[in-house]
Design a protein that fits this description.
With 150 residues, this protein is mainly β. The chain has a domain at 3-14 and 51-139: Umud Fragment, subunit A. The protein has one helix at 43-47, and strands at residues 3-7, 17-20, 39-42, 54-60, 74-78, 88-93, 96-105, 108-112, 121-123, 129-139. The strands form 2 sheets. An 8-stranded antiparallel sheet has the order 1-4-5-10-6-7-8-9, with no helix packed on it. The chain has a two-stranded antiparallel ribbon with strand order 2-3. The longest helix has 5 residues, at 43-47. It is globular and about 55 Å long. The chain starts with a strand and ends in an 11-residue tail after the last strand.
Length: 150
């Protein structure tokens, strides 16, 4: 199961504003040259639209690679959102935090790992479960540092 390492909220002094090009960037054929940025993206506002209820957590484990969440990625978790069927959630099951896809049908609820090595966790009334928050974004590098390589 994926474990989480939580981080304190970002301070206002650490806000990041980045230039954004409004022209589309195709994932296929290149476009002609692009000029200066058209607008500024407040990365803090984009990721933490509700800063009082949003935090970062680092994922440890491998239950969610099927949705693009990998070990050592950061996830943005919003505790103010109401989890619904299909959401990726941070669940606290028997005191342990984990990341899963929430599945719900009338009279039935379960947590689904999006990794191939884990069975779904059926949730019964006797389970000590809290849906702690909804994962809204994933932050991960495209290239990971290899240990021992400069």
């Amino acid at each position: 199961m994926a474990e989480l390492v939580f981080f304190s909220p970002i301070k206002a002094a650490q806000l990041t504003r980045l230039p954004v090009f409004t022209c589309p960037v195709p994932a296929g054929f290149p476009l002609p040259g692009v000029g200066p940025a058209d607008e500024i993206l407040d990365l803090h506002q984009y990721l933490f639209g509700q800063p009082a209820s949003t935090c970062l957590a680092r994922v440890v484990g491998d239950t969610t690679p099927g949705v693009g969440i990998h070990p050592d990625d950061f996830i943005v978790v919003n505790r103010a959102l109401t989890p619904s069927d299909g959401h990726i959630v941070v669940a606290v099951l028997n005191g342990a935090h984990s990341v899963h896809r929430l599945r719900q049908e009338p009279g039935r609820r379960w947590l689904e790992a999006v990794g191939e090595h884990y069975a779904p966790l059926e949730l019964h009334a006797a389970c000590d479960l809290r849906l702690w928050g909804v994962v809204t974004h994933v932050i991960h590098p495209l290239f990971r540092k290899r240990s021992g390589v400069a």
